[in-house]
Design goal:
Elements (H helix, E strand, L loop, with lengths): L5 E6 L9 H18 L3 E4 L13 H11 L4 E8 L5 H14 L4 E6 L6 H7 L7 H16 L22 E6 L3 H9 L2 E5 L7 H11 L11 E9 L3 H19 L9 H4 L6 H10 L3 E4 L1 H15 L3 E5 L5 H14 L5 H9 L1
Parallel strand pairs: 1-2, 1-9, 2-3, 3-4, 4-5, 5-6, 6-7, 7-8, 7-9
Helix pairs in contact: 1-12, 3-5, 6-7, 8-10, 11-12
Length: 347
């Protein structure tokens, strides 16, 4: 800590109730352009399968388009669910991205299926869901990306094409902390998903730092935390946005995968005591309020984790509310637009 807090974005390309996937992807493109102009550090897109309320299933394809629509911001996966794929194909996909957009690509990896196990087994029929196989995939992936596989392995006779001059930054995603130790072993950066699990994050990041082995990419441990952020001009508006997310979390926990509802559709719902307890728990997965309130909470989160970068995920029914939230967040933290950065550099 001690440096100015950097802000990044995780976009799951949410589909609202009554909306379409095409609409969601168009909004992702518009939001990436905005983030690029406002001075956000990185823009990550996710991998989900068999979930109709989320349109992001192929981050490697979406990243290519978003990178072409932006000029400065880093683009990446939050993340590639590695067991769903072969290490060689992931290496080739991201080598191509790095060849097209050198120095702007992050390869965030995850172990979760990004959906249900049946779908995951169809994506990769050889997937055994074992820890050992996951570790071996990381070893193979690093070898392919750096042209330095184990000389005794079959990978030594195979090159990931195209040969690239640079390597995408490797990140590990975790919501439990276990993968943080894997990231530490391989010298990768780490992003803890508090938007999934609000418990144990600071401890997981601390353990990652203490176990970190330097790599060619990262001489020192580097960590971020991802959290849902709902920033609005007024407290009343922020409470409305939060109420919609309260219902969304409960719906997902009940197996309901419909698109995001409006505030009018959820405002009169009467919750049971058990549901109210879950709402209280889930609110630790998000930060909501006016710009000043949100800034204070994010600054405290950064202190708790001892980090300098927050990854904000914002889901709202109206896209205008989502845009406004990111605009207010950028203003609150006085992000420097890239055009101004370029002017300062040239002068």
């Amino acid at each position: 800590m001690g440096q100015k807090i950097k802000l990044s974005i995780l976009d799951q390309s949410p589909v609202r109730a009554g909306g379409t996937a095409s609409q969601a992807i168009k909004e992702t493109i518009e939001l990436a352009r905005l983030a690029d102009r406002l001075g956000y550090t990185r823009y990550w897109v996710s991998e989900h399968h068999n979930i109709t309320s989320l349109a992001g299933s192929t981050p490697e394809v979406l990243i290519a388009h978003l990178a072409g629509e932006t000029k400065h911001i880093r683009l990446g996966s939050g993340g590639i669910m590695l067991p769903n794929h072969s290490s060689l194909k992931v290496a080739e996909n991201f080598r191509m991205l790095e060849t097209l957009f050198p120095g702007r690509i992050d390869l965030g990896l995850g172990r979760a299926p990004g959906g249900d196990r049946i779908t995951s087994s169809l994506l990769n029929p050889s997937n055994t869901f074992s820890e050992q196989d996951f570790i071996q995939q990381i070893v193979d992936l690093q070898g392919f990306l750096t042209d330095s596989p184990d000389p005794a392995s079959v990978q030594a006779h195979i090159r990931a094409i195209p040969i690239a001059d640079t390597v995408p930054h490797l990140w590990m995603l975790t919501s439990s902390g276990h993968s943080g130790l894997v990231a530490a072993h391989f010298g990768m950066a780490l992003s803890f998903a508090q938007f999934i699990n609000p418990v144990g994050g600071p401890q997981a990041v601390k353990a990652y730092r203490e176990s970190f082995h330097p790599s060619d990419q990262f001489a020192q441990p580097y960590a971020t935390v991802g959290i849902f952020v709902l920033c609005a001009d007024t407290e009343e508006k922020a409470r409305e946005l939060q109420a919609v997310m309260d219902w969304r979390f409960l719906s997902i926990e009940k197996g309901i995968r419909s698109g995001l509802s409006t505030y009018d559709e959820v405002k009169n719902i009467q919750y049971t005591q058990a549901e109210l307890s879950r709402i209280q728990f889930n609110r630790a997965r998000m930060i909501a309020g006016t710009p000043e309130q949100v800034k204070q909470q994010i600054e405290q989160l950064a202190v708790d984790y001892q980090i300098d970068e927050i990854v904000a995920a914002t889901i709202t029914y109206d896209f205008a509310d989502r845009i406004r939230s990111y605009e207010l967040l950028a203003e609150a933290f006085e992000l420097t637009p890239y055009a101004e950065k370029a002017e300062c550099f040239s002068s």
